[in-house]
Amino acid sequence: MKILVTGSNGLLGQKLITLLTAQENCQVIGTARGQNRLKGDFANFEYRSLDVTDAQAVEAIVSEMRPDAVIHTAAMTNVDECESKQAECRQLNVEAVRYLADSCAKHGVFLLHLSTDFIFDGTAGPYKEDVPASPISFYGQSKADAEQVVIQQAGLQWAIARTILVYGIAQDMSRSNIVLWVKKSLEDGKTIQVVDDQWRTPTLAEDLAMGCWLIVKHKAEGIFNISGEELLTPYEMAQQTAAFFGLSTDTMIRTDSSKFTQPAKRPPRTGFDITKAKTVLGYAPHTFREGIAILAEQVAAQQS
Ligand SMILES: NC(=O)C1=CN([C@@H]2O[C@H](COP(=O)(O)OP(=O)(O)OC[C@H]3O[C@@H](n4cnc5c(N)ncnc54)[C@H](OP(=O)(O)O)[C@@H]3O)[C@@H](O)[C@H]2O)C=CC1
Ligand SMILES: Cc1cn([C@H]2C[C@H](O)[C@@H](COP(=O)(O)OP(=O)(O)O[C@H]3O[C@@H](C)C(=O)[C@@H](O)[C@H]3O)O2)c(=O)[nH]c1=O
Q: Where is each RmlD-like substrate binding domain found (predicted)?
């Protein structure tokens, strides 16, 4: 099976390259902006530079490579930046998806698109797959619009994997995540305020990559919730992170969303019901504690 991954320098992208190249009979094309930042020797792997906002470049690579499937991970994932750079956000999070959906439909390629809990307003989590979108941020709106682009593309064989608060470690990361920033801040004795009135089902990046592979392997069509299973607040996640690494929580302040605000609104209570992915795909995510342990091993390996 030949699989093309967009955004292969990102957290999910790197985990996908690692997982897919370890599968038998899997040929993998990693694509990202500029140079490949993922070091290592991977079997049946080829890297191509691809800016997904370039419609001609998207069509050229899909028609040349003729993959069986595209996994589209590239996106503007800085939620606050999406609020201040709205045109850029739409170009990357919506228009680029249109280019990919067009090319995939034209060449008979299965498209797996990555989406988010931020398409919801967070008043009714945990969510199942069939709840209508109700975004409260520009990022959330862009991802909800992108889903519609995929769903409405004529002649396209598609799936959407929705995920939540992804954590893990990769090489040269362009964005941090809750486990990494809590660990680093507490190690540095830096004061952090962490909210205890938002709820998420955080997702280990390796689990998300596995969920994507299961979808593509089975060419399972439709929307799938691919996240962790435990509904936790960021404060609970931060406490578990501190406990795992034996870090003092003296500089960690428990707060709530009325006092801790970010430029883009965050939905209060999301979380996913992952019954469909478990039943249809055999998806089986790690617990949050197991996930931290996996990340910790990788941090130790990077440091040795
Ligand atoms: N991280 C999370 O908590 C969540 C993520 N998601 C979704 O999952 C997907 C993967 O996220 P994740 O891997 O964590 O995000 P990352 O930010 O780690 O990766 C996104 C990648 O997209 C790349 N990119 C940006 N612009 C372009 C472009 N024009 N052409 C090609 N590549 C580009 C970035 O490149 P560069 O590194 O060079 O900037 C980056 O490597 C996204 O679609 C996101 O919306 C959904 C819910 C939660
Ligand atoms: C930075 C920060 C965040 N938080 C909380 C708010 C939030 O619920 C949670 C994570 O905040 P972050 O800013 O790290 O991440 P955030 O941008 O909220 O993460 C989102 O990313 C996009 C891409 C998604 O699609 C979503 O699923 C979601 O995971 O932690 C604090 O309590 N204190 C802090 O200092």
A: 1-298
